[in-house]
Design brief:
655 residues, six-stranded antiparallel beta sheet, five-stranded mixed beta sheet, alpha+beta
């Protein structure tokens, strides 16, 4: 190198600069330029400049030798300072990591910080940490820093596979400056593919130890060949120790939290059990008090509602969900039905009703038993009430027997007896004949079924302010007709109720509505005969377990009805045509009569009536609108023809 070139590269033009080179003054010591370089933290290459400059200036040999010696001392000082700074940084990083560990809240965050600091201090392209999986017997990636390959981040290494598997198996650090040339560990396709995707060459791995056990591996790696120094291996080992401590601390915290949670849960269970026991004791006291003071089933439901903090109500057998009620009666326990609980109220195999707890799907077992006890108390109350009511039922049966047999014709005495039984004979009633249609295996079973039918019918009559009596192998009921009810409605509802109560089909025939029973008590006997005929008709046509009245049988109802209600049959069948002709002066009845007489032929009908065929068609369209589109069905047509004939016989001068 020429002297001019050295001066231009290593000395400022003024001759006193402190750039990459430092001028050596005649009176300056050899250490001066190197002290300046140390102060500025210059790179190791800059320490050659003072020597080169002295040689270029032709300085004496002893001066150059002094500079060489000062340079070596300065580089040694620089290396020592660098080591101290690096050590200080390492200690600072370890201190910060220990501080993070002391305030451990999130294990993943602490492990991520350890990996980040290891990568930064070792100056590697990537750092990562794997943990052993004792269940699967391998090790898997937990945290990575600097990784760019998805396959690498999802690697699992078997024990002894890859460098990490070797570290996990032997509990010793391992390092390689060229992974793919290394033969100390087992290469696998999946691991090599992941390492190749990441582009790694030099890899250092140290074990994470908890006592004598390896729980994972901490790695530092470069994408170029590199030799890791002992100090770097020791530093990574220190980070690994902190990582292991963090994992151990986290595990202890988890166990502690789990134990605390378990204790808290146990305390909650104890508190809850105490509350449940107190509630059970409270409901026991309330139920005992209710029984002693003669309370009813609804009082029991109200008391249980308060204790269970819900809505409990008593429902009759027919109003409760059928299947849950049967299941509860069979099992002897309350059963869940949607968000409700059903507890059967039963006695001697007979279902008397149910206690229904509304909107409590998660019922406690002790509260469930409380509901079941309440159902038992309810059944006892019902049985007590039944024993007291049986006398009343016998009296009701005697009154109905007298009405049927017409033994007591004094209206005043009938009224007094009815008032004592809370039966309003001034209201409109229907007389129902009910008969069991189940298959009894012997006479004793049949007699028992009849007794249960009579008991259920008597209970129904008492609740409906009616009368009931056993007669002719079945049961007869006198029930008031409610607003909007028909005889058919009452018959069908009674069949369902009695069938559900005795668990066998019960067929019910009803009379037409009857009134003024005080003045005409013999009406009851005639109505009972009509109900019996309807009952026999139902059984004849195979409608067992159903209910019906004479009006349900069309023109056959005329044969079943006690008073042959011809006018009612005509009104129900062709009443709209009669009203239309009277209101508008048309001849729909005459046209329909001629239509049937002419074999339902419009062409012959128009000749019979001496009108145009279109007139016949228009009239028949009007008939269809008034009677319904099914007016020409065979069964309906038969009833219409019979009604036309009866109407013509009743008013012969109108046609």
């Amino acid at each position: 190198m020429s002297r001019d070139h050295v001066q231009s590269a290593g000395r400022p033009a003024s001759g006193t600069g402190t750039s990459t080179g430092t001028a050596v003054t005649p009176d300056g010591g050899a250490e001066t330029p190197f002290l300046d370089l140390l102060a500025r933290g210059a790179s190791p290459e800059a320490y050659e400049q003072p020597v080169l400059l002295a040689r270029a200036e032709g300085r004496p040999a002893d001066r150059i030798a002094a500079l060489e010696h000062a340079k070596l001392l300065a580089l040694r000082v620089r290396a020592d300072l660098e080591g101290r700074r690096r050590r200080e940084a390492e200690l600072s990083a370890l201190f910060e990591t220990a501080h993070d560990l002391a305030g451990l809240r999130d294990l993943d965050a602490v492990l991520q910080a350890i990996v980040q600091r290891a990568r930064s201090l070792l100056g590697t392209d990537i750092a990562y940490l794997s943990l052993n999986d004792p269940v699967r017997g391998d090790t898997y990636m937990r945290v990575t820093e600097g990784s760019v390959a998805a396959r690498f981040q999802q690697l699992r290494l078997g024990m002894g596979e890859g460098l990490g598997g070797l570290v996990a198996q032997t509990a010793r650090p391992y390092v390689t400056d060229d992974y793919f040339k290394e033969d100390r560990f087992q290469h696998t396709l999946s691991i090599d593919a992941g390492v190749r995707d990441e582009g790694l060459v030099a890899i250092l791995g140290v074990p994470l130890m908890l006592g004598p056990h390896v729980i994972g591996v901490l790695f530092a790696a470069d994408r170029r060949a590199r030799v890791f120094e002992r100090e770097q291996i020791a530093l990574l080992g220190s980070f690994a120790a902190l990582a292991a401590a963090a994992i151990d601390t986290a595990n202890l915290l988890t166990e502690t939290r789990s134990a605390l949670a378990g204790l808290e849960h146990a305390n909650e269970i104890i508190r809850d059990r105490s509350g449940v026991i107190e509630r059970a004791s409270e409901v026991h006291d309330r139920l005992a008090e209710l029984v002693l003071r003669g309370g009813g089933v609804h009082d029991v439901a109200a008391a249980v509602s308060e204790v269970l903090d819900g809505t409990v109500e008593f429902v009759e057998t027919g109003a409760a969900p059928a299947q849950p009620l049967e299941d509860s009666g069979a099992e002897g326990h309350a059963v869940r039905h949607g968000d409700d609980w059903i507890a059967a109220v039963a006695a001697g195999g007979e279902l008397l009703g149910a206690l229904v707890l509304r909107g409590q799907p998660g019922l406690d077992p002790v509260d469930q038993r409380t509901l079941e006890r309440a159902a038992m108390v309810t059944s006892l109350l019902l049985l007590a009430r039944r024993s007291a009511a049986e006398a009343e039922q016998r009296v009701r049966g005697e009154l109905l027997d007298d009405l049927l047999d017409a033994r007591d014709r004094d209206p005043r005495l009938l009224r007094d007896r009815a008032l004592r039984l809370r039966a309003d004979l001034d209201a409109t009633h229907v007389v129902l004949a009910a008969r069991l249609d189940g298959r009894a295996t012997d006479a004793e079973e049949e007699a028992d079924a009849r007794r249960r039918l009579w008991a259920a019918a008597s209970h129904l009559a008492a609740t409906r302010h009616g009368l009931a009596a056993a007669r002719d192998g079945g049961t007869v009921l006198l029930l008031p007709l409610g607003d909007g009810d028909t005889a058919t409605d009452v018959a069908r509802r009674t069949a369902r109720h009695l069938g559900g109560a005795v668990h066998e089909p019960v067929t019910v025939g009803s009379s037409a509505p009857v009134t003024d029973l005080f003045a005409h008590p013999d009406t009851v006997a005639a109505a009972y005969g009509e109900g019996r005929r309807c009952l026999d008709a139902l059984r004849l046509v195979g409608r067992l377990g159903d209910g019906a009245a004479a009006e349900d049988f069309g023109f056959l109802g005329l044969l079943l009805a006690g008073e042959r209600d011809v006018a009612g049959f005509v009104e129900r069948t062709i009443g709209p045509l009669v009203a239309y002709d009277e209101r508008r002066g048309t001849e729909l009845l005459r046209t329909l009569d001629a239509y049937y007489a002419c074999g339902m032929s419009p062409a012959r009908t128009k000749d019979e009536l001496h009108v145009h065929v279109n007139t016949v068609a228009q009239r028949l369209e009007r008939v269809a609108r008034l009677l319904g589109e099914d007016w020409q069905d065979p069964a309906r047509a038969l009833e219409i023809q019979l009604a036309l004939r009866l109407q013509r016989l009743a008013a012969p001068n109108r046609h």
